[in-house]
Amino acid sequence: MPDLRLRRIRLQTERFLPLLLMADDRQAEVEALLRVGTLYGLFVQRRQPVSLTVITDETAAFAANGPRAHLDGGLRGKRVAECRLLVTAPAFRGKGLARQLLMRVCGLLDTDCDAMIVGTGTVPRMDRFYRGCGFAPCFVLPHHFSEAWPAPIWEDGILLDDMQYYARHIGRTGPSPR
To answer: Cβ distance 35 to 102 under 8 Å?
Structure first.
């Protein structure tokens, strides 16, 4: 792949909606994530996005009194970033670009965060992908997909219900979650 560049995208993030909506078709949710998160992308020759991700700061959620402090993932009190969306353009799938984007963003955040988390459906392909990126299972949100989405979601022939979260230590110091 020639000249892949990682970019933090600050302006006109809405122009990337068509690609982001391939990861989550709820436009209002994606737009809300773009308002609170940071959009990163891998670009070919600075123009064409081949893979995008939205990262949010979840540190407050895992503080001692935060809404996620009760989750048993070894993350309480840690500086936590969450990969909320990860998508690769169809013509570029299967080339390791989502993995490359995720790894490069983890490297970029290693001085600001202790851990990166990501939630996904309980699908073997996704489990292999995130484990292959150095993530380990850390907690489950039961019935997340069946309660949060208006219609059933199927992936790889599996009806999604629980959301499995994975964590990866990315900070330069301190123990890894779990």
So the answer is: no
The number of CA neighbours under 13 Å toward the Cβ of 88 is 14
> 4-169 belongs to which homologous superfamily?
Gcn5-related N-acetyltransferase (GNAT) (3.40.630.30)
Supply the pTM of this predicted model.
0.90
Structure tokens of 155? 């992936």
* Both structure tokens of 5: 């560049």
pLDDT tens-digit readout, 14-67? 999 999 999 998 999 999 999 999 999 999 876 789 999 999 999 888 887 777
3-class DSSP assignment, residue 78:
coil
Beta strands in 13-143 (DSSP E): 38-44, 48-57, 80-88, 115-121, 136-141
Domain layout of the chain by residue ranges: 4-169
